[in-house]
């Protein structure tokens, strides 16, 4: 039987004492991806950036329950454990999908959404992770991938290569040094089921919270054309999608200052917090 990873054991980076703001990272990333956001946003908000199970420094049981529905319940329980009745939720990539599911399944818990290149308008897992799902090759891939893969993976995610510093590579590489963690991440990828597009469209139609959509113009994992698809199906988009030029898959990393300004403007001047 799959093991549910208790949200009380999740690693979490925290800053500030203001209105709650939950930051959810993407597939294969961690709270490290919000390193440029925590301190600036923490000056006005109570910011929590957890590592999802099998990511970063959170527990990574090989037999963990990593289904999207379980992760969504875990995020709701995580907020409850921290005494947060309602929060603004920001998510990148997979984190954007989970933010939307949290808003749909627990609407009273989510006040507003900030979606950063969300993994929504896709029909299959990005090819970079696909080998991990295969019966035999997946185990070999997990065993071999290790920290050495990080520079290559970050080059795929980033547009601006000069931002790929040794510190960035080291920050993402540390958790991958342990083989059990890599095998747990393989289990995570195997359990990740992408809903069919009609189901995703139905999900988006159920989102009643105000939403800001941010996308990197140079995203090679989730192309920017997907922003229009999402825009056409979100009934409460607060403004047209904000397309950031010379930015790739993780705007909060490549354009942290701009993203921080967008979030602060959205949540303070529009009265969402």
Question: Can you put this structure into words, describing what you see?
Answer:
The protein is an alpha/beta fold and about 270 residues long. It has helices spanning about 40, 70-80, 95-105, 135-145, 150-155, 165-175, 180-190, 195-205, 225-230, 250-255, 255-270; strands at about 10-15, 20-25, 45-50, 85-95, 110-120, 210-215, 240-245. Strands 1-3-2-4-5-6-7 form a seven-stranded mixed sheet, with helices on both faces. Strand 2 (about 20-25), helix 1 and strand 3 (about 45-50) form a beta-alpha-beta unit.
In short:
By secondary structure, this protein is an alpha/beta fold. Helices cover 38% and strands 14% of the residues.
The CATH topology is given as: Rossmann fold
Oligomeric assembly: single chain
- Which of globular, elongated, flat, extended, rod-shaped describes the shape? globular
What structural class do helix, strand and pairing data support? alpha/beta
Summarize this structure as a short list of keywords or feature phrases.
alpha/beta; seven-stranded mixed beta sheet; 11 helices
Write the layout of secondary structure elements.
Blueprint: E1 12-15, E2 20-24, H1 38-42, E3 46-50, H2 68-81, E4 87-93, H3 94-105, E5 110-118, H4 137-145, H5 150-157, H6 166-173, H7 179-191, H8 197-205, E6 211-216, H9 225-231, E7 242-244, H10 251-254, H11 256-269
Parallel strand pairs: 2-3, 2-4, 4-5, 5-6, 6-7
Antiparallel strand pairs: 1-3
């Amino acid at each position: 039987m799959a093991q549910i990873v208790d949200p009380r054991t999740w690693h979490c980076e925290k800053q500030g004492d203001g209105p709650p703001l939950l930051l959810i990272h993407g597939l294969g990333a961690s709270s490290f991806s919000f390193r440029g956001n925590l301190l600036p946003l923490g000056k006005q908000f109570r910011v929590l950036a957890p590592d999802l199970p099998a990511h970063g420094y959170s527990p990574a049981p090989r037999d963990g329950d990593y289904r999207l529905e379980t992760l969504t319940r875990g995020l709701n329980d995580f907020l409850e454990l921290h005494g947060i009745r309602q929060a603004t939720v920001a998510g990148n990539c997979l984190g954007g999908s989970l933010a939307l599911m949290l808003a749909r399944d627990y609407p009273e818990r989510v006040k507003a959404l900030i979606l950063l290149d969300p993994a929504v308008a896709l029909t299959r897992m990005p090819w970079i992770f696909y080998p991990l799902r295969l019966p035999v090759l997946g185990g070999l891939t997990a065993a071999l991938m290790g920290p050495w893969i990080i520079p290559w993976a970050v080059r795929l995610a980033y547009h601006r290569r000069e931002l790929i510093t040794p510190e960035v590579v080291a920050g993402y590489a540390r958790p991958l040094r342990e083989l059990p963690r890599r095998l747990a991440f393989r289990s995570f990828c195997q359990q990740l089921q992408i809903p069919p597009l009609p189901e995703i469209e139905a999900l988006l139609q159920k989102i009643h919270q105000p939403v800001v959509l941010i996308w990197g113009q140079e995203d090679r994992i989730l192309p920017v054309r997907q922003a229009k698809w999402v825009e056409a199906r979100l009934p409460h988009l607060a403004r047209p999608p904000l397309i950031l030029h010379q930015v790739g898959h993780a705007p909060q990393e490549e354009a942290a200052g701009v993203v921080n300004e967008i979030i602060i403007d959205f949540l303070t001047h529009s009265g969402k917090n």
